[in-house]
Amino acid sequence: MKNHCFLLIAFLVGFTFNLQAQGQKLQNGKIFHLHHAGEQEWNYAQAYRSGNMLYLSGTVGKGDMERAMEHVYKTIELTLKQYGLDLTHVLKENLYATDIEAAKKSQPIRKKYYGTHTPAATWVQVSRLFEEDTVLEVEVIVEIEKTE
């Protein structure tokens, strides 16, 4: 019986954590929060829908560039899924890296997520991002219903 109670509690904790990790849509599906501490402190949302457009705040990655790149695009992909979208809906991408050469070497990871889709993109090296240990930040602009 103790084992069953423990498993049930572990499942509920995991389920709750998973829901929090996926975030929450608010205000008629317009705003999406990842429940990152900075969202409330700095008053921003991970994603904001306006008409046919969806704007994603910069998604950040820490550690080595490959790990950061994987985390960033996986998070962007998960955010887009909340709106029933995928990366083929991305029109514009802005990428900011503290080491542009490391970002360029990690390009195959980015390509894995975009496949053959080619959004307009700007890649910039910066001396520092908001949090000191952040090495990569990517923001995207998305068209919800494709007009082409």
Structure description:
With 148 residues, the protein is an alpha+beta fold. The protein has a single domain, classed as 2-Layer Sandwich (60s Ribosomal Protein L30, Chain: A). It contains five helices and seven strands, in the order H-E-E-H-E-E-H-E-H-H-E-E. It has helices spanning 2-22, 37-42, 65-81, 100-105, 107-114; strands spanning 24-26, 31-33, 47-50, 53-62, 90-97, 120-125, 134-143. Strands 1-2-3-4-7-5-6 form a seven-stranded mixed β-sheet. Helix 3 (65-81) runs parallel beside helix 5. The protein is globular, with a radius of gyration of 17 Å. The N and C termini lie far apart (59 Å). Mean pLDDT is 81; it is low at 3-22.
Number of helices: 5
* Strand-residue proportion: 25-35%
Give the neighbour order of strands across the main sheet.
1-2-3-4-7-5-6
CATH topology: 60s Ribosomal Protein L30, Chain: A
Low-confidence stretches: 3-22
Q: What does the radius of gyration come to?
A: 17 Å
Q: Using the alpha-carbon principal axes, give the shape.
A: globular
Mean pLDDT: 81
Query: Order of helices and strands, N to C?
Result: HEEHEEHEHHEE
Distance between the termini: 59 Å
Main beta-sheet annotation: 7 strands, mixed
Number of strands: 7
CATH architecture: 2-Layer Sandwich
In total, how many domains does the architecture comprise? 1
What do we call the CATH homologous superfamily? RutC-like
Structural class: alpha+beta
Helix content estimate: 25-40%
Identify the CATH class: Alpha Beta
